[in-house]
Queue: 4 jobs
Job 1
Amino acid sequence: MAEIAIAAAGMVFSPIVQVFFERMLFGDFIDLFRGGKLDDRLLTRLKIKLMSANAVLKDAEDKQFTMPDVKVWVDAVYDSIYDAEQVLDEISTKAQQRKLDAEFGNFGSKVRNSISRSTSRFVKKVEKQIEELLGTLDFLVDQKENLGLREGVGGNPSERLPTTSLVDESRIFGRDDDKKAIINSLLSDGASGADETGVIAIVGMGGIGKTTLAQLVYNDEMLKDHFDHKAWVCVLDPFNMFMVMRTIIEAVTQSPCDIKDNLDQLQNDLKERLTGKKFLVVLDDVWEKNNAKWVVLRNALKFGAQRSKVIITTRDHEVARIMDGKEHPITDLSKEDCWLSKEDCWSLFAKYAFPNGNFNAYPQLEETGSQIVEKCKGLPLAITAIGGLLRSNLCVNEWDKILRSELWDLRIAHTDILPALILSYKYLPPPLRRCFAYCSIFPKEHAFKKDELILLWMAEGLLPQPQNLTMEEVGDDYFFALVSRSLFQRSKREERDEYVMHDLVSDLAKFISKEFTLCHKDDYSRKILSKTRHFSSSQNFGMKKLETFHESMSLRNSHIKRLSDSICKLCNLQILNVSKCLDLTALPRDMHKLTNLHHLYFLETGIMEMPINLGKLKCLQTLPRFIVGKHSGYGIEELGKLTNLHGSLSILKLQNVQSPTYAKGVNLSLPPLGQLPSLQDLSIVGLDGVVTIDHHFYGSGSPSMKPFGALKSLSFFHMLECKEWFPFEAENESRAFSNLRHLSISFCPKLASGLPAHLPSLAELSISNCPQLVASIPRTSSLCKLMFSNCNTVLLNQSPTGIQELSVTSCRELELPMHLNYSSLETLTLEDCGFLKSFPVFPKLRRLIIWNCEDLESLTVGEQHEQDLLLSQI
């Protein structure tokens, strides 16, 4: 097994092979070979065959987009590796089942003998599967020469022509505003000052028109005499510093550069030719993010005259910031306000689709053509390529067929649309490729959330886990890498923090995944095939079909009434989502056997009881709701065992908690939630039996334990009998709630005292309908927002420094004397404050809302008032 680790560490694998080799190193796989239960010679043969396939797989992955036979070969290799992964799953499942049998079973000799025979049958079955897999790989590797596949190649664009500065302006539409904005930046001193070379970035996905816009700017007459020298460099990838410098020198001298491979000579030659000269350099299609390489170029460019400029075009926002680590003007063509208008899209389409651009001669095609243009989503490359395709057949039936067909598949063979997007895919780091391809499981126009997608990647084993990062942190990096390259874009509903893939990007993902992924919403005609490894549907499918997809299972929003007990045999299941299954009333009793379960979602269901012994799920990280039961194995103590929980948590039926003390015979204690180290959001609602919030709430962990150390938001609501909130150990009070930012206490009419004094991170405090509460507002520089409603005036007579927003409602005896230190107050809302007659307008107040304050007579504006005041409502 050590040989595998060494070999794997020394090779660069295709993403799918890399993931497989990583899984081969897992303990369950190794143990079955090391223990002699499986023939380790099979492992050696499998290793050699996979490496043989991997040697040409990179070349094949690049050629599959233009060579259908190679695509078939790639799919066959993928299918074989997926089959091998299925074998690993079976091995892992068998190992997990044996562990569970040992943990939960008490077997006699007959049962043990039966288990041994079962293991023997399993080993024979696995060995047969590996032999069949080796036979398939033998055949596939033998085909590589027939297909012209070569070792050690691939990864760079093939037969790609470099861009030039020339452009046919008669075929450009809708970029006038962007062009003017960039030209104005070129002619100005720029925010960085006249002494520095200014950098302007044009960013956006492939095919959106970055190069075209740069060409328009470069050739504009206004710049003709503004610069001493201009140079256009098509950078490509990998980044070649020698080529970049030689190209600039040749543009300046108008003659060939004879310096070939001496970087020092090139740098000094470029420096001498640019010293004191005002220049414009365009670096088109930049991918390089290694700052050290840019330093070499900058050291030569910095000797140019004042107001020299560099324009870069890139698909990656990070590249746009790497030139010198400063913020530069960025024209982001991926933003909706930079998309071509409908009129410009149609004009561009007509230019390519109709002879002489005359669409009036073909009125029968206008409606269909408009719908085709709409599918292009404002992408110039998509519009021009489809227009050129349709120009060859000006027939309504043919245009309608293309409109309603799987157009993107056709574009692989006949147009330039997908190749532009393929470049974005090809240059993704290998692990990112498979994460991106997995997204083909989403229907078109589907809005998804970052954290939900990362969980799916985790469940599929697509994320590595380095020693210094969690898988969630790796997933976060992967996600924003895809956002940076415009493969993911923010949804228009930004307040929901959702993302979407452009239809063209979605089609690219689906082409790559092919039969291995089935999105039933996008294609109802397709069936689940033997190759299908990932499946999504809004329909309700039987368990037999779903058991194949057993690392992540989502039955969300289905009409399922009962989960089969067989789910509990899916030992590798990591995510189970049954949210919005309104007819589902119970989870399987043996859920505690799902020892690899990380995330369990069951909000908006009929489930009102937890399965027994849920605390055995030591890997569980997400549990949005816990329902306390009365009996052993169902109680609050099970929640305390789930030490990896994070995120939001609601606790129901706390009246079932068996209190350690029975003060006054009626007092319930809150459970030791302070011991959950990853809990971030806690709401406690409707606990009328709780009289005090005491030390039980914080828990009694180790002396170094910081109760509620990760908690960011805490809410107490409708606790009608609660009278006092005791702080955590007076001498150590500052150790609790160290990260709490939002505190809300509402409808606790008997609560008289007890706000924590030390809340160093508190930013927002809301107290509503707590008329007896007399307490000191926490003193912290982070507190910027206060909201009071129907509260004791003692709270209002305090003046924490730094408050920027204050809202006071239904406080009849309110006064706001001038001596209070509201010097930072910017927004003030006063509502239903009946006895308020006058108050000062504080120095920085900008927004004032007064509603139903009937006795108000005057506002006093001091000489020190600094801002224009906006009176929203009076």
Job 2
Amino acid sequence: MYMELSHGEVVKIWSMNGEQSNYWLEATYTLGSFSPTKLWLEGVVGSTVTGDIAIDDVSLTFGPCPADATCNFEGYLCQWNQVDDDVFDWQFGNNGTSSSGTGPALDHTYGTEMGQYLHIEASSPRVPGDMARIESSPYPAGGRYCFEFFYHMFGTSIGTLSIYTKASKQDSAPLELVWVESGNQGDLWRYGYTTVTNSAEFTIVVEGVVGTSYSGDISIDDLKTVAGDCAPTGFCDFERNFCTWTNVFSRDLDELDWSRNAGSTYSATTGPLVDHTTGTSSGFYIYTETSSASSGDKSWLTSPSYDATTTMQSGGRCLTFWYHMFGPGVGSLNVYIALDLQGSFAPGDPVWSKSGDQGDYWLSAFVNITAEQRYFIIIEAVHGSGFAGDISLDDIDIFEFPCAPQTLPTLPPIDPPTQPPSPWDCDFELNWCGFNNEADLRLNWTRIQGATPHSATGPTTDHTTLSPQGYYVFVDVDYANEGDHKNDAGRLHSPTVTSTSEDGMCVSFWYHMYGDHVNQLNVYVQQRDYQTTAVWSRTGSQGQRWNYGQTHISRLGDWSIVFEALRGDGFKGDIALDDIKFFIGACPTTAICDFEEASICGFQDDPTADFTWRRHQGNTTTSNSGPSFDHTTQTSNGYYMYTEVSSNDLVEGSKARLISTMHPATVGKCVVFWYHMYGKSIGTLNVWSTQEGVTSSAPHWSLSGNHEDLWRRASFQYESIVPFQIVFEGVRGFNVAGDISIDDVELRDQNCELPGTCDFDVDSCGWVNAVDDHFDWMLYRDATETDNTGPSSDHTGNGLC
């Protein structure tokens, strides 16, 4: 931008060069002229066609622009001024300083020899202790700002760089030190920041002090102030910028840069549609654009330098972040600890790594960081193949303590894209989001952080952040005088939901049900004064982990969801909820088919068979045959599939076949399912497969006869070089007491264990409690409740026993 004065002189007053990322940026400049002026906006073409420059919303207002320390020193000082009470001035520089062995070769803004920065030249006539200062425009009294900057302090005789605040209207006011760094910090740009404030109107002063010799040049670049206090070290949601994280500009270390973006990436079938922080297409994240990348190209994102963790009382730090790796060309994402060697990086082996397509979801990662000397954290994306390999990051944070041991939650389905947020979503991090307790009940839901009050029940972290700092809600079932309070209820009502789509709405949530006395969690729909029967239910301990739940609501109009927790026989029965979401349409397909939805996961009856499988709740129509509850929820509200054999048209040997959707070719999957075969006339349950319309020559699994009134687990290994379907075949016995049922069908990406093999780290692997004994075996973690008996940990070493 140029200003043309009335006598014809044209003065450049503002300039910006190079790519500034794919979003609108605000620029301001305070005009000072006592005569009429004209403004010129000039755009200069770059080297190729991909160099469009755009402007919008130009405005002129009376009075000076708000104080803003933002400056990249590309030819002018912006709103900074040299001061008179120092010894010498800061100088513009580029392509190195005049002294060898000190100063930067590249600026920070562009990472080029052409880019400019500000520096102090320590060569003669300077002597040790000489100081140079620049001062910002004034900031209002009481204002609080985060002052961010990049600094370069490389050389054997580096002095001191200091940041002060100063009361601007008091000539004799002392400087107040808010940040300082001294000595050689290596041949690289480092990020600095500090919160600045003053009870009076104030300015920011940046001071460089010469060291003991000429090899002591200090440089600064990319100064900026943002309203409000600075965020904690290491944290970044990328909503405004990269915070403390930076790209590495040396092509000796990486080939690609991380870019800040909102909405979808440039390539279809890869990258997120929304960020993780806001869950919207207007929220920002960072990603590696792989459209023009070569296989193996790397992108390094580096943290600030941290002190050795051996100096910390906690003994380590915890790095957390959310990542998105979706697309057939996705390579790998790695985390390194790189020792700070004063100008070079020395990364070792990755301390965390993930490769390949992880689905169209934001996923969380937790990495323990330990180092015996000063270090950086490097997050590296490595390109796989093709254009559909974008890798994204969001919501990075670093805690001053090690990560808590994580029990990985059950992942939700990975097929559909991340859903945009609704007005009724709640992660309970800030408040209740309009959810409320039903009055006049014995139990209430409580919003809480960390572990619940009692051991051996309830979660230790929330689900959103998987940390003790996150919030969730739970029902505390402990009473001072217990008495007989089994089935006492606590009900949590959602805000009123308005549904106008004939596709209905999916309600998803994460639940935690762990403890000897856990009873039941039910979900209802309430519309005006009418409350449905349970549309979703779970009974009993579901393991010491967060589990994913969802249910489809087809009702139109205004309604609310009711979560009901029922108390069991004692205090070890805490039930918790977190991350409740609402979105229009059918619920996504999950990895396990529990037949709770009417779509039955795409299974279809074979029209050429003698009869059909039925989706059912509770008891079958024939006494002394079939289950009284499903396997998933262990209640009469849950659904399962069964063969109803009481029809007069059926004879011994009649068959019903249930065929799955088409699955892709696989080098090995474990097909797991639960079956119920109870009755004096049970026939046979066979499991077949079909490939390209041809049925397997023999069943992969088969069982006949009465196997008691129990749900039992079965599995078999399967592989196919072509797409395939799984077929469940029920064969009728000699009379009506022969109902056969299945539930919870799952194809796992792992080898099946031999029947009976179990480490109890996830579930009981098909081992079931007998019904005719006095009490039950329980999955347990850590020490038992009674002192001087039982183990303090499991034998496997992974947690549960």
Job 3
Amino acid sequence: MQTRKKYIFLTLLASWLLLFFFAGERLLRFTSFSERKTEAQRNWPHWTDQSLLKSFADPEELQSDGDPSVPSPRERRAAQLSIYKNSRCRMETCFDFSRCEKHGFRVFTYPRHRDQPISESYSKILTSIERSRYYTPNPEEACLFILSIDTLDRDHLSGQYIHDVDEKIQGFPLWNSGRNHLIFNLYSGTWPNYTEDLGFDIGQAILAKASFYTESFRPGFDISIPLFPKDHPQRGGERGWLYQDSVPPKKKYLLVFKGKRYLTGIGSGTRNALHHIHNGKDIISLTTCKHGKDWERHKDTRCDKDNVNYEKFDYQELLHNSTFCIVPRGRRLGSFRFLEALQAACIPVLLSDGWELPFAEAIDWGKAAVVGNEKLLLQQQTQFLWDAYFSSVDKIVHTTLEIIRDRLLQHRSRSRVLWNALPGGLLALPDFSTHLGDFPFYHLQRGSSPSKRFTAFIRVTSMEGSLSQPILRLIQAVSRSQYCAQILVLWSSEKPSPPRGKWPQTTVPLTVIQGRSKVSDRFFPYAAIQTDAVLSLDEHMSLSTSEVDFAFVVWRSFPERIVGFPAQSHFWDAEQRRWGYTSKWTNELSIVLTTAAFYHRYYHSLFTQYLPAGLRELVDGLAACEDILMNILVAAVTKLPPIKVAQRKQHKEAVPQQVGREDGDAGMPLAGEWSPSPPWSPPAKGKGTASGRHLSQQQDCLDQLVDWFGYMPLVSSQLRLDPVLFKDQVSILRKKYPLLDKP
């Protein structure tokens, strides 16, 4: 009996040992795999050939930053725990979603007090929100709240440091421990440790911060933003140095860096090691010791030589002429040169361990900051990211808000593809669709085509209340097109629309929509528009079926652009130092009027939902301003000009009488209204004539739109597309669109 018990005991023991041996090995594999998976999810780029890279720095140089005041990792974690008391915050636990259900994603900024100092940068942030489509002046409607207290600079040695923030925010009735609040910060901590201490308890507020440590970053809750200078433009911003779809030239330098070399303190170890890679040929790495008031007291044997070499090269020249730019950490993790490198199409080589990269939740930085063989792709991606998210304060702030919005409405959030492909997440509205094929921008990369039918959209403003002959002829010509799916008539007249029996019989469905007198209604995203293509028409236009067919065929090859007939242009008036607007015939065009033009229906959603209400009100008050705004909007999205297609000769020579209209639509320029004139001649400004007043209003419209966008988005072109054999002296039977040749 004892022997049996002994054998049973040994058998169980052996079984347990085998179980621990195999299960333990698998557990270690699982743990290792989880660690690798977590590491892989980091949005930091990796050196694919790290094992082949030679180490130029001595191990001692990399062990510390050369100053005993630099905190250890344990000390830094202890400091972070004391600062972020709600370090476990996530959207599900620290955000009240119910505030966003009734009125949607609306943002309220606290009222500003006159005696409360505010920096230029924070004023730009508040202005970006208050002039955006997210803003509401009513706190009861708000989903998100922004403090009016300037929290950007929390270095207590700075002159812009605001004292007693804790006491001030605790007195706000809406504070609620920071719940549903967003706090912006660019600088935290101070000499010598530069910890992430903000000097006040943020509670359950979302923190939008530059130089964010991954250890203190709360994934899915906080947002890392870029460090930007105080002179960063409010809106618009400078374009990147590499134009869209252009091939980057072969650059003189492979890798460059020019900056301060910290002799002591945090960040000095990284920058001290950069001199090893300098070869004076294709790799330029220059540092100077001239930093701080007592730099001479700390200077070493290299300083004098480094300072001499430092003055031999111009920073902007290096930036323009290098493929890669080293972006090391400064005293804090972020650096101004990060945005400088993006703008210059210089691929950033990031040397800042532990930095949560800006907007990494949405942006795939591996496509713009990884050192690899696909240099062309990487340089183009830096330009896209600069233009889409970083070139102005408006874009930085709006990207921050849109990331939060995507978290709140995950069933209608943008994919990473939409965030990382032209035109970018800010211009791909998830309320329209989250499917790439529904937008006009992705057909080429997906190998697809837009729908093969179009919707004719005719706006009627006639005061007669009856159908005129031009309207009837236009409906008949459009309905005979083999590509027409339906005709929608937007009846914007004060007189009631004619009964159904008065409308012409057509082979396609004809629907009348009762509109208002507002001009901006023509670009409302009506649910009745089911096709990708919209043919926008004015009631007085005269088109043949052949013209419509040819224009639609052209549009299907360029679905992201406006394709149409009557064209106008803008020019720079050097004497007035302003942009000018002319309706005279020139060799260049930058505007195709929507009185007869094809475009994608998505632009209706973008016009109504993306643009602020103030711009739509501007359109309703100025003549033909809606044409200019729609062209500016499409050009701002695509960075491309519109396309003009062939017209019959009679359109150019006939000069119809001006048709008077009300509510800002009076005297809309029609086809054939212009006479030839020398290129770039300014328009005549006869204040006493109707056309002079209209051109003056169009000029005023252009000025205000350029001011709002912050730059001139319109792109000029000399391209006009005609059918094959158009106007050639060959038999009319050999031509695909014979009616285009007839007068």
Job 4
Amino acid sequence: MAADSEPESEVFEITDFTTASEWERFISKIEEVLNDWKLIGNSLGKPLEKGIFTSGTWEEKSDEISFADFKFSITHHYLVQEFPDKEGKDEVLEDVIPQSMQDLLCMNNDFPPRAHCLVRWYGLREFVVIAPAANNDAVLSESKCNLLLSSVSVALGNTGCQVPLFVQIHQKWRRTYVGECQGPGVRTDFEMVHLRKVPNQYTHLSGLLDIFKSKIGCTLTPLPPVSIAIRFTYVLQDWQQYFWPQQPPDIDALVGGEVGGLEFGKLPFGACEDPISELHLATTWPHLTEGIIVDNDVYSDLDPIQAPHWSVRVRKADNPQCLLGDFVTEFFKICRRKESTDEILGRSTFEEEGREAADITHALSKLTEPAPVPIHKLSVSNMVHTAKKKIRKQRGVEESPLNNDVLNTILLFLFPDAASEKPLDGTSSTDNSNPPLESEEYNLYNQFKSAPSDSLTYKLALCLCMINFYHGGLKGVAHLWQEFVLEMRFRWENNFLIPGLASGPPDLRCCLLHQKLQEPAPMTEDLLEEQSEVLAKLGTSAEGAHLRARMQSACLLSDMESFKAANPGCFLEDFVRWYSPRDYIEEEVIDEKGNMVLKGELSARMKIPSNMWVEAWETAKPIPARRQRRLFDDTREAEKVLHYLAVQKPADLARHLLPCVIHAAVLKVKEEESLENISSVKKIIKQIISHSSKVLHFPNPEDKKLEEIIHQITNVEAIIARARSLKAKFGTEKCEQEEEKEDLERFVSCLLEQPEVLVVGAGRGHAGRIIHKLFVNAQRLTESSDEAAAMAPPEEDLKRMVPPEEKRQNLAADFPPAAGRELILRTTVPRPAPYSRALPQRMYSVLTKEDFRLAGAFSSDTSFF
């Protein structure tokens, strides 16, 4: 049995080689994507213009592919360019190397200030990258790297794609790529080395040239010349010799009387710290050849002062503390608080002893009954005293969020007539008026739905903003608001005019709180909205329309009753002729005697049966206006407004006044920008105004949109602060010659708007000499003792006549060690054999304090090897 079962244990396995493997599927997906993106064949673009990598437009498109269950993202990066005419393209491209190989030798865009790392390392205008889709995934093993590279090589060969294709390996933070580019009979391998610690022999040009020559392995004698581009970057971090001039406002001086009370109407502006943290100077030698210069471990000709090209960039401080932005942000935070004023301060200060149970009817009877008031108690100084007395009844003076000096200063700012013995009474007029319709100020408060900049509402918003930031925060805001409401009640009860409010009906273009503070009026926007909802709920039926008409005819009935009382025996025609002349039609007719006379009659709409006018006329009684019930009870409306103010929570108050605060902030940045004249800031301010007018013009804007507006304002403040910082450091105001001053101001403006700015004249130009002096001063502060720092100014040292060798060493010491050393080596040699086709070779090197990187692109002839 055992012997019989042995043959059955053998399994005959058949391998089906026609079934695609995972590797083949992966290659097929790469080819499919390349075909979809039409990256097949060679497409030559225009020669690269100088600076196009920074000024041009880069675009990318991505897709997702997978190798088994491991997902990759494949991304095509390319510079948007117009292609030349395609006539005769096939003839021209027969013996032309791929575009990317030609770009390896282009010197117009070395060291671009802002570009993809592969663009900086290889000078490519177009490439494809395959990388792990998840950020935490990485290709670490050598076998997987080789498998991906072989996949890339097969896909490029099958499709005829001549765009370089890279694979990202190792962890993503290391930015390590390997890749390949194929053309007809040629291939370029992209290789990379990334080290934490650099070998000493590779820290200078001579050692890097040895690596480059050994890698290309050219046996020709003499070796074709190697083109060299070098950039050293120096970082200036020590600004101690230029203290940041911005200082926070001195609130103690304000209260102490050193600054007038009007300072409460001014928002602070500027950064509390230097918004420019570093200055990066890049000294570049763009066109060098081997043998012209010496740079080894013992000597170097690379003197930054003698570099033909200088360029500068500034590093901005991360989120510098800006006063205006902080003020507006902290005020906006109140909008999210839920506490009421009473919960914040304790028992209501409006309740006097013995009157806790008083209701609205008691208040109305008190207001309508005449009562003698001693004249000496009507001074505004007594108003403040009365309000503070009510506060003290509920809590001790030492517990008040606002001290007396601050409170008095604010109230005098809000109510300037308090400084006089006799405040303005109700018969006086103020010079407050809305700005002209053509003025920019009018357009702003109208667009933002805030309030005029000289109004009481606007000033109150600024005071609450400052109190919130400097004096007690939320408690200080609640305290000032209660004092303000007490002041408003006192003035109303004693018929004192409220300064900073225009006469007339409420201005519906302003915020609701501003409408409420004006003379008691029948309709503010919230009441109009409420009435509209009531009328809309009546529906469109005949009964609803009739009821709606009767609700709107109260004024008409009152006028009819007054007209009947003044004109006994009158008719409806008489009233219509006086009240609505268009509804009384007169025409000339000939009477019985043949004379031409005027005859009048009601219009057709007045003759409609059950006309509202007819019904109102029939029900109207002859009652003089003085005996009628008031259509508008100003006392009742005023009490409603005062009650409305009293029950406002700090969050509600902040939302009412936030448009005014944003309005004030925009005016402040416009004022500060006018002193600096920064074109980019002008554009941003216009965007802020446009955005704010859309957001603030409607009730209850979203918090996210409000935060965006505040963030934009803070950004503008930071830009202006950076401009002032740079002007102070470069001494634009100290220039004696107008031409030099204009050039320096233009240079500073470019530093704010461009990623990197070329220094005209390099180290010998006016800006270059200033930059050199900045580095010299920083070096003296860092490396020299206090006695050495007090030596002669650096300008005099530079003018000394010293031997060339000593002068070179002194100048080198003027700068700190280079923070970054970048080199690009290029040549065209036959490879791999002397009879092979001469092709571009390139190697990029960067050495910083943290790491060392070599990125090589080595081309070889695949036909003659």
